[in-house]
Amino acid sequence: MNQLAAIRIFAKVAECLNFAEAAKQLGISNSAVTRSVAVLEQHLRVRLVNRTTRRVSLTAAGQSYSKHCEELLRQISVMDEFMATAAGQTGGSLRIASSSSYASIDLLELLAAYRLQEPRMQFELTVFDNMTDDIMANSDVCFSAERGVRDSSLVCRPLAQTRDVIVACPAYLSRRGLPRTPLELSSHDVLVTSDAPGRYWDFRDKHGTQRVEVRPILNTQSPLLVKRAVQAGLGIARLSMSLIQSELSDGTLRPLLTHVELCGDERPVWLFYSGQPRMALTLRRFIDFVVERYRQSEAEENKEAVIPV
């Protein structure tokens, strides 16, 4: 028995809890997966998997053994990457998840820059509108712009800060008129995303804070869909500055109520990843690259903001 190969197959079964899916991802036959797990159980003299016609589950011993297998395979991956780096053959694969808004703005440029540094690197990309625990669990790193840090066992590193802007297209404004005070928003069609306030928007000026009730006619998870809806003249929305910067520059979208402060407009960009003690070298190098790239970008922005006297 090739025990290491059997361990890899069992680890995939434990991940998928489905023999057919494990076989598909490994590129081998269903019978090979079944036979390998059976031989491994015979070698260990313990049942690892409960099989029925409808579902697959791990026994208590299987759950414990699965954790040790994951740790072993992680260490082997680290060793392989270390030797590849020492031999000048860096490369590998990263599972990256990203919110659709971040993927449409910075992510592809970021990956292109990293490929210049690591030309052998490959990426498996998942794009989402609503981040879930499953997405994070099945990814090495995750990029998202959330207003607050979720309760998670993952490491959450802030990379950048952007802000929400209230916008509309010229066609909508010519048809419905320009809102000149926050209170006038109550009579306008409003488009919202699921991660933004849906019923009340708060504003602050020299007189204090004012809460305005808005009337959403469209509520969706996708900021990109809301952006396209605003461009089509469907209504007014609050969107991340980073998402609409080019449209604001060319006049396709117009900022509204810039004379008052929109409360709760901060939207940090987060990098999520596992804080495991033996992090794979491929992942560590990518995280260091991302953090350093944003640090340099922030330093350049601060430098440009200084006006010589």
TrEMBL record:
Residues 1-59 form the HTH lysR-type domain. The keyword Translocase does not apply. Keywords: DNA-binding, Transcription, Transcription regulation. Pfam families: HTH_1, LysR_substrate. InterPro entries: LysR-type_TF_proteobact-type (IPR058163), LysR_HTH_N (IPR000847), LysR_subst-bd (IPR005119), WH-like_DNA-bd_sf (IPR036388), WH_DNA-bd_sf (IPR036390). Belongs to the LysR transcriptional regulatory family. PANTHER family: HTH-TYPE TRANSCRIPTIONAL ACTIVATOR TTDR-RELATED (PTHR30537:SF5), HTH-TYPE TRANSCRIPTIONAL REGULATOR (PTHR30537). This is LysR family transcriptional regulator.
